[in-house]
């Protein structure tokens, strides 16, 4: 049981996120520093540059967040950090800082699973879901359907057999010449595109099951793009066709997962959860079919410190204790 707020640190990839969360008062402050511009010229995240930038930004961000929360470090009751999965050097920056800070303050530190953070991010909102619920976790590294029976009790219902949903967005954007990170840009283009000019298949929806596969879709887009006039208008139309196929596929599988589990609530998490078409389509399906859907606000769909502070606070409250060893898990099943 912890009576004081928990500091959360996220540094698994290319965002440094810091937040302070209090189990009674909610989120007190959060700050994010994105390294996107640093990596853009390389067309992807460069792990060593990511680690160095976390080193540079983390402590200033901790100070800034504490000040915004009106807290002194002595006001903290615990420190949570992302322990994996992610880039090892990037993870170690957050883990070392969190463990050192907690040790010096004589408060507990806790390593949080990045995906559990994403999964619980909707709990940061005023209208929070209650377990049991089904979660669609769609990020740059994952596309999973998870049954959340209780907080801390997760069952994997479906997974991707190849590319993750966000990865498919990013790779599709890249093959049409959009700069890294292409997912959000592709989504913006799709909004201007014409519906129906390009129709791609909805992978693996023609057979039972909750797994995903997106690499075939990407290949279909590549062929359509290569055989087109490659104009700006066509790029937007292809983007529209891709986004519609992706969103349809995710919606169909979410409905199946709700049916299979009997759950009445659906939670959307991870970076692709920021996608406007996905949000609109699922909200519409929910009102039509009588289930509830919960989304974190878009800034808490992508990587952030708030979800880590929240997940850590819940684990500390549940009495979970860890040794002082600085351990990270670049690969780690939920
Ligand atoms: O959760 P996240 O920030 O990082 C990971 O843990 O992977 O997710 C990032 C992913 C990227 O692949 C990005 O292209 C995708 O989320 N993404 C989007 C949108 N915003 C971010 N994909 C589609 N539409 C968006 N609006
Ligand atoms: Zn993430």
Description:
- Helix 4 (about 115-120) packs across helix 11 (about 305-315).
- The longest helix is centred in the last third of the chain and has 30 residues, at about 230-260.
- The chain is globular and about 60 Å long.
- Helices cover about 45% and strands about 20% of the residues.
- The protein has two domains: about 5-120 and about 300-315, Nucleotidyltransferase, domain 5 (2-Layer Sandwich); about 130-295, Nucleotidyltransferase, domain 5 (2-Layer Sandwich), CATH 3.30.420.40.
- Strand 4 (about 80-85), helix 3 and strand 5 (about 110-115) form a beta-alpha-beta unit.
- It is an alpha/beta fold.
- Keywords: Acyltransferase, Cytoplasm, Iron, Metal-binding, Transferase, tRNA processing.
- It catalyses: L-threonylcarbamoyladenylate + adenosine(37) in tRNA = N(6)-L-threonylcarbamoyladenosine(37) in tRNA + AMP + H(+).
- It comes from Tahibacter harae.
- GO terms for molecular function: tRNA N(6)-L-threonylcarbamoyladenine synthase activity.
Question: What characteristics describe this protein?
Answer:
single chain; alpha/beta; 2 domains; five-stranded mixed β-sheet; 11 helices; binds zinc ion; TsaD; Gcp-like_dom; metal-binding
């Amino acid at each position: 049981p912890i009576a004081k707020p928990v500091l959360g640190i996220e540094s698994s990839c290319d965002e440094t996120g810091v937040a302070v969360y209090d189990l009674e008062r909610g989120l007190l402050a959060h700050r994010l520093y994105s390294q996107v511009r640093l990596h853009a010229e390389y067309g992807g995240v460069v792990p060593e540059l990511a680690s160095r930038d976390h080193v540079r930004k983390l402590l200033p961000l901790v100070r800034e967040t504490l000040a915004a929360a009106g807290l002194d470090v002595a006001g903290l009751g615990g420190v949570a950090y992302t322990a994996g999965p992610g880039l090892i050097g990037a993870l170690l920056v957050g883990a070392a800082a969190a463990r050192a800070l907690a040790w010096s303050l004589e408060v507990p530190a806790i390593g949080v699973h990045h995906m559990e953070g994403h999964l619980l991010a909707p709990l940061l909102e005023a209208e929070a879901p209650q377990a049991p619920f089904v979660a669609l976790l769609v990020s740059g590294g994952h596309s999973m359907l998870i049954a959340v029976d209780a907080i801390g009790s997760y069952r994997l219902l479906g997974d991707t057999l190849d590319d993750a949903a966000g990865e498919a967005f990013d790779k599709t954007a890249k093959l049409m010449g959009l700069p890294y990170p292409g997912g959000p840009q592709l989504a913006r283009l799709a909004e201007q595109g014409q519906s129906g000019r390009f129709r791609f298949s909805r992978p693996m929806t023609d057979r039972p099951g909750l797994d995903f596969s997106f690499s075939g879709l990407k290949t279909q887009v590549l062929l359509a793009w290569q055989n087109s006039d490659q104009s700006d208008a066509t790029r937007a139309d292809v983007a529209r066709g891709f986004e519609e196929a992706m969103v349809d596929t995710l919606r169909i599988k979410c409905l199946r997962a709700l049916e299979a589990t009997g759950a009445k609530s659906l939670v959307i998490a991870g970076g692709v959860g920021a996608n406007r078409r996905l949000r609109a389509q699922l909200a519409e399906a929910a009102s039509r079919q009588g289930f509830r859907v919960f989304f974190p606000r878009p800034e808490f769909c992508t990587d952030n410190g708030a979800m880590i502070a929240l997940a850590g606070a819940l684990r500390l409250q549940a009495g979970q204790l860890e040794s002082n060893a600085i351990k990270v898990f670049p690969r780690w099943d939920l």
